[in-house]
Amino acid sequence: MKFYKSVAIIGAGTMGHALGLVHALAGCNVRLYDNSSQKIREADQNIGRALETLVEAKEISTHEVAAVQDKIDCVDSLEGAVFDADLIIEAISEDAALKQTLYRSLADIMSPSSTLASNTSFLDVFPLIPDSLQNRAMIVHWYSPPYIIDLVDVVPGPVCDSNNTRQMVDFLNSMAKRPIVFKKFLPGYIANRIQGAINQEVFSLIDQEIVSPEDIDCSIIHGLALRLATMGHVQKLDYTGLDIVQSVFAARSKEKGVPDANCRTLDKLVADGAVGVQSGRGFYEYEGQQVDELFRKRDLNLLKLRRQLSFIRED
């Protein structure tokens, strides 16, 4: 695998400085550029504070801090940032006009072998990118703070060379990240879309004054998050039983103000008798695995996580 030895980060804001740090931690030489000198100063301070936190958490040693900082160079020109960079990461504001202007500038100055990656959260940037960059353009969307959160969304451009995509995925895996490769652009990707659905329900509960914001967070932390952290959501459904999930789903859609909902995949699985762990198959395959052993492992993992959570909440 070709390693991205030189990485240019365009935009030094909330995500830009953190992306500079995560790539420096991976051993890359980073050049960080922003047209605001104020943001550059703040980026330097924020990187320093993040490194202090990583040391406190024993993720890195105090001896490594200087070496990581030495790998990050703040530069005062776009050309100086990108002229020979292996990877150019665009992390500027979510403004289509600004991004398009930047991409046009990059087309004139970046190396013919450079890969262009946008950190955009919701914009389909591919129509904004010049034709000359399309075969090496992709979205590589990180979550804040990227030096802690491992999930990374990877969306190859419509004509992006598949070798470029494989290289990016291999690179992210080498950083111990968890890349998800999309077949096409989807605004918000997976995590943000699910979070948006949660927001909709949470705001509805708050407006109805049925429970307090504290009650909602208590329900999420001590009920939902514990299980999601060990199994995710879809596999958790298999442990509940998809026939039960189907019944609850149907009943929920009959509530006042809740739109009708159905899932063809869920209905077919239940019709086929694939109702989850108990039947040996659901959304996941469990053939050859003992049901009692699956539930025992689930319970042990939940107990371990609950114990750790209690330590965290006490801090």
What does this protein structure show overall?
With 315 residues, the protein is of the alpha/beta class. Helix content is 51%, strand content 12%. It has helices at residues 14-25, 37-56, 62-70, 78-82, 96-109, 162-174, 191-208, 213-231, 234-240, 242-252, 264-271, 291-314; strands at residues 6-10, 29-33, 72-75, 87-90, 115-118, 137-142, 151-156, 178-181. The protein has an 8-stranded mixed sheet. The chain starts with 5 loop residues before the first strand and ends with a helix.
Please supply descriptive tags for the structure shown above.
315 residues, alpha/beta, 8-stranded mixed β-sheet, 8 strands, 12% strand, globular
Could you give a quick summary of the protein structure above?
The chain has 315 residues and is of the alpha/beta class.
Task: Walk me through the topology.
Layout: E1 6-10, H1 14-25, E2 29-33, H2 37-56, H3 62-70, E3 72-75, H4 78-82, E4 87-90, H5 96-109, E5 115-118, E6 137-142, E7 151-156, H6 162-174, E8 178-181, H7 191-208, H8 213-231, H9 234-240, H10 242-252, H11 264-271, H12 291-314
Parallel strand pairs: 1-2, 1-4, 2-3, 4-5, 5-6, 7-8
Antiparallel strand pairs: 6-7
Helix pairs in contact: 1-2, 8-12
